[in-house]
Specification:
759 residues, alpha/beta, 6-stranded parallel beta sheet, 30 helices
Length: 759
C-alpha cells in the first residue's frame, strides 16, 4: 500500500515543472528570442499546440489520412478523443495555419456544426485538455503581466476585485484580468521593431504578431506609474515603469477562465455581460473614478475576456444567436467595448459550436423584403461539418466508450488486429437491484453488429454497383477493399464521393440506450450448467434496435422505414462472422500450419523463377509433389487429373502464375525497400493464401468428419464424433474471447442453420 507522502511528493514534482518564478520584462524578452513560441499570438499558439503532438496514419472512409494526435486527447489519456472526422479536423488546422499567417480568413469565425453525438463537445474538451497540457511544457509556456504600484505611492494601491490594498507593497500584485500579452506593454513602434527582429531569428514560417494594446486594467496601472514618475522628473521613464518592483511577467496555466472562454447554452445576461463582463457598483463607490468609470471596477468575466490571448468558444450557438452579430468585427478589428470611452483589444481565436439548427435560427432575423441584418455575419462563418462515423471500427470504439470507462484510442497494428477489436466481447458488472450486482456479457460480434447497423444507416446507396449492398460499402470504407474469391476490388474502383454520408442515421446515443436496457434484461434461455440468460447476443441487439426505431421520437416515419430495410444484410453478415468462428473451432486441430503455407509459396516462387529452395542439406530444386499435394488437398483447387504425374497442367501453371506469383510480386512492389526478401511477405495479404490460412467451409467438415451430425449439437451423445468436435470447438472459441455461455449460444445458432441444409 502506498504511503500518503508519495502522493504529495508526486504533486509537488508536477507543480515544480509547471510554475516559474516571475520574470522581469527584460528577462521575458530575452527568453522570447531564445524560444519565440512563448510570444505567439492566439491562432499561432493554438496551431503550435496541435502540431506539437505530431501525427499518425489512420484509415477512414476507405482512404489513408494523417491525423493530428492532439485530437486523440493524449493529455487526458484519450477520455475526450474526437473519434473520426479526421478530414474535418485537418481542414480546421489548415484554416488555423492560414489565419495565423494572416494569409486570408483572418476575418472568419470558425464554425463547427453537425447532429448531436458527432463529437463536437468532445472537440471542445479535447481543446481545453490539450491546451492546458501544452501550457505546462517549456515550449508552450504562456505569460501575462502583473502590476504593483504601491512602491510609487503608498497612499494608493490597485484594487481589482477586492479591498483597497494597504502599504505592504510586496504583496500587492494584481494580474491582468484578461491575460494581457507581455509585449503589449511596449509602445507600438518599439513593439513592431522588436517583433521584426524576433521574426527574423525565428525558424517558423508563421510570424508572430502582437497588435493589441494594454487592457484597460493594466493601462490604468501603467498610466498611474507614468504620471507619478513623470512628475518626479524620472529620465528613464519606461524602464522605471517596467521595473520588477512594478511589473512582473508571470506564467499561467491555460484553462477555462484564463486563456479559454466558453459560453454555455445556459449562460444568460446582456450581450455585453456575456461577451466582456459588467461593472461592479460596490467597487465604483469605493474607487476614485475621477469622473469616469474606473476599469478596476469592471468584472472581466465575459467569454471574450476569459478567452483573450488564446481561444473563445461559443457552445450551443443557436442559444446565443442575438450576440453573434456583436462578434462580427472581433476577428479582424480585434476590439470590443466595455463602455462608452473604454474599449479593449482582443486576441482570441473564435470558435462556434452548434447543432444544425443555427442556420434556421439566424434566418429568423431576415424580414419579408429580403433584408437580412445578419448577412455579413453569415459570410464570416467558416463552416466545418461534423458527421456521424462511417467506419465500423470507430463506431464500435465509440459504443464501448459510451458503455464503459474505456478511453484508450484504438491503434490497430494490422487488419487482423482491427478485426479482433471490432468483434471483441464486453463483460460488465450491472446493478440489478439495491445491493445486487451481476456480470453480463455482450457476446463477440454484439458490438460489431450494433456498429455495423448504425454505420449502414448513415451511408448513401446511390453509388453502389449492381450486386453490392450497404454492408459491402461499410466494409469498403473500413478495410479499403472487397474480397471475392481470389479477387480483391479496392475502394478506388467504386468512385464513391461520400458526399452527404454521415449527416443522418442512427446516433450512438440511441444505440447506447438500447444496449444499456438489454444489460438489465434476463433472457429466456436455459442450460443445465451455463448462465446463458445473462448473455446479450448480436441478434438481441439488432432486434432491439429495429424495435426501438418505432418509439424513438428522434426519427421521422421515413427514416424508420428506411432503416428497417437495412437490417437483413447486417444480420446476414454477422451470422457469417459467427459461422467463421465456429468453423475455425471445428477445424482448429486440422488447420494448415503457417510453415506449410510458407513452404508452398517458396517452392512455387522457385519453380516460376527456375531457382532453388534452401533446405537443411543446402539448395534444392522445388518439389513438384509438395506443390501438387498442397494444391489438391489443402487448397482444394485441383484434382489428380490436372497433373501428369506431378507435372502441372496449363491450368495449374496459370493458377500459380496469376494467383500466387502475381500477388506475391504486387505485395513485394508495394512494400519494397532495402533488403526486402520473400521472408518479409505477409502471406495473409495474398488472397489465395489467405483462403488457406483463414477461410473454411462446411465441405471441409463433411470431408474430415465422417460421423458428424449437426442435429445432435445441443446435446450430443457421449463418446460420439459430434461430442468430441463440440468440446474442441467450445474450447477453441473460449481461447478466442468467448465465454463458455456465449460460445454455446453462438455455436447452437450456427449449427441450427446448418442442420436444416445438412446432407
Amino acid at each position: 500500500m502506498s504511503q500518503p507522502h508519495h502522493f504529495f511528493a508526486e504533486a509537488n514534482s508536477q507543480l515544480r515543472g509547471t510554475y516559474e518564478q516571475p520574470l522581469s520584462l527584460q528577462e521575458y524578452v530575452s527568453r522570447a528570442f531564445e524560444n519565440p513560441s512563448i510570444a505567439s499570438h492566439a491562432s499561432k499558439y493554438l496551431l503550435e499546440a496541435i502540431e506539437s503532438m505530431g501525427t499518425r496514419t489512420v484509415f477512414e472512409e476507405g482512404e489513408s489520412r494523417e491525423r493530428y494526435r492532439f485530437f486523440d486527447d493524449p493529455a487526458n489519456d484519450g477520455k475526450h478523443a474526437v473519434l473520426g472526422n479526421t478530414e474535418v479536423l485537418n481542414r480546421f488546422v489548415d484554416d488555423l495555419r492560414t489565419i495565423a499567417a494572416d494569409r486570408g480568413k483572418s476575418e472568419k469565425i470558425l464554425w463547427f456544426d453537425g447532429p448531436t453525438a458527432t463529437g463536437k463537445s468532445e472537440l471542445k474538451r479535447c481543446l481545453i485538455n490539450g491546451l492546458r497540457a501544452y501550457s505546462k511544457t517549456d515550449a508552450g509556456r504562456r505569460y501575462t503581466v502583473e502590476w504593483n504600484i504601491t512602491a510609487a505611492d503608498e497612499t494608493r494601491g490597485l484594487s481589482y476585485g477586492g479591498e483597497v490594498s494597504g502599504p505592504e507593497a510586496d504583496r500587492d500584485w494584481y494580474e491582468s484580468p484578461v491575460q494581457a500579452h507581455p509585449l503589449s506593454v511596449f509602445p507600438r513602434s518599439v513593439r513592431q521593431t522588436l517583433l521584426g527582429e524576433l521574426n527574423e531569428e525565428a525558424t517558423n514560417h508563421i510570424q508572430t504578431t502582437v497588435s493589441e494594446e494594454l487592457d484597460p486594467f493594466s493601462r490604468e496601472a501603467y498610466n498611474y506609474l507614468e504620471e507619478t514618475y513623470r512628475r518626479e522628473g524620472v529620465d528613464q521613464l519606461f524602464s522605471t515603469i517596467t521595473d520588477p518592483q512594478h511589473l512582473r511577467i508571470k506564467n499561467y496555466i491555460v484553462d477555462v477562465g484564463q486563456g479559454i472562454g466558453v459560453l454555455h447554452s445556459e449562460d444568460d445576461g446582456t450581450t455585453k455581460e456575456r461577451l466582456v463582463g459588467s461593472w461592479m457598483p460596490s467597487m465604483l463607490q469605493k474607487l476614485d473614478s475621477r469622473g469616469r468609470k474606473n476599469p478596476q471596477a469592471f468584472s472581466y468575466d465575459g467569454v471574450l475576456s476569459q478567452g483573450n490571448g488564446l481561444l473563445t468558444i461559443v457552445e450551443d450557438a443557436s442559444q446565443h444567436a442575438d450576440l453573434l452579430q456583436k462578434l462580427l468585427n472581433v476577428p479582424d478589428e480585434g476590439h470590443v467595448k466595455l463602455d462608452k470611452g473604454i474599449g479593449m483589444d482582443v486576441d482570441s481565436q473564435l470558435l462556434i459550436i452548434s447543432n444544425p439548427d443555427l442556420n434556421s435560427e439566424l434566418d429568423k432575423y431576415a424580414d419579408r423584403n429580403g433584408e437580412d441584418p445578419l448577412k455579413a455575419l453569415k459570410r464570416r462563418l467558416d463552416r466545418h461539418e461534423f458527421r456521424y462515423l462511417t467506419n465500423i471500427s470507430l463506431e464500435a470504439e465509440l459504443i464501448r466508450r459510451e458503455l464503459t470507462d474505456e478511453t484508450t484510442v484504438w491503434q490497430a497494428s494490422d487488419e487482423a488486429d482491427l478485426k479482433s477489436k471490432i468483434r471483441a466481447p464486453l463483460s460488465m458488472d450491472v446493478r440489478q437491484e439495491p445491493g445486487a450486482v451481476s456480470e453480463r456479457e455482450l457476446a463477440p460480434h454484439a458490438i460489431e453488429a450494433a456498429a455495423l447497423y448504425s454505420v449502414v444507416t448513415r451511408l448513401e446507396p446511390d453509388e453502389l454497383s449492381r450486386g453490392y449492398d450497404l454492408v459491402d460499402k461499410a466494409l469498403l470504407y473500413e478495410f479499403g477493399y472487397i474480397q471475392e474469391g481470389d479477387e480483391r476490388t479496392p475502394v478506388e474502383d467504386f468512385g464513391f464521393s461520400a458526399e452527404g454520408e454521415g449527416s443522418q442515421g442512427i446516433p450512438v446515443t440511441f444505440t447506447r440506450d438500447i444496449i444499456a436496457d438489454l444489460l438489465h434484461k434476463e433472457f429466456d434461455r436455459h442450460h443445465p450448467e451455463l448462465d446463458v440468460g445473462s448473455v446479450v447476443m448480436p441478434t438481441d441487439i439488432l432486434d432491439a434496435m429495429t424495435s426501438g426505431l418505432r418509439e424513438a421520437p428522434v426519427f421521422s416515419r421515413g427514416e424508420r422505414s428506411e432503416y428497417r430495410e437495412h437490417i437483413s444484410p447486417v444480420r446476414e453478415h454477422i451470422q457469417e462472422r459467427q459461422e467463421e468462428d465456429v468453423l475455425a473451432g471445428l477445424l482448429s486441430e486440422r488447420s494448415v500450419e503457417r510453415e506449410t503455407v510458407e513452404s508452398y509459396v517458396e517452392h512455387v516462387y522457385a519453380w516460376y523463377d527456375n531457382g532453388t529452395v534452401e533446405t537443411r542439406r543446402g539448395p534444392a530444386d522445388p518439389d513438384p509433389l509438395r506443390m501438387k499435394l498442397f494444391e489438391t488437398e489443402q487448397l482444394g483447387r485441383f484434382e489428380a487429373a490436372d497433373y501428369a504425374g506431378t507435372t502441372p497442367s496449363n491450368a495449374v501453371k496459370r493458377f500459380r502464375k496469376e494467383k500466387v506469383i502475381t500477388a506475391l510480386n504486387r505485395y513485394a512492389w508495394e512494400n519494397r525497400g532495402e533488403g526486402f526478401t520473400i521472408e518479409n511477405v505477409d502471406l495473409s495479404e495474398i488472397p489465395v493464401i489467405r483462403a488457406v490460412l483463414d477461410e473454411h467451409d462446411w465441405a471441409d467438415i463433411e470431408r474430415l468428419y465422417e460421423d458428424f451430425d449437426p442435429t445432435q449439437w445441443n446435446n450430443p451423445p457421449a463418446n460420439t464424433e459430434t461430442a468430441r468436435a463440440k468440446e474442441r470447438t467450445i474450447e477453441y472459441m473460449c481461447e478466442q474471447g468467448y465465454s463458455r455461455a456465449s460460445a454455446e449460444l453462438t455455436s447452437r445458432t450456427v449449427l441450427r442453420e446448418i442442420a436444416d441444409k445438412w446432407d
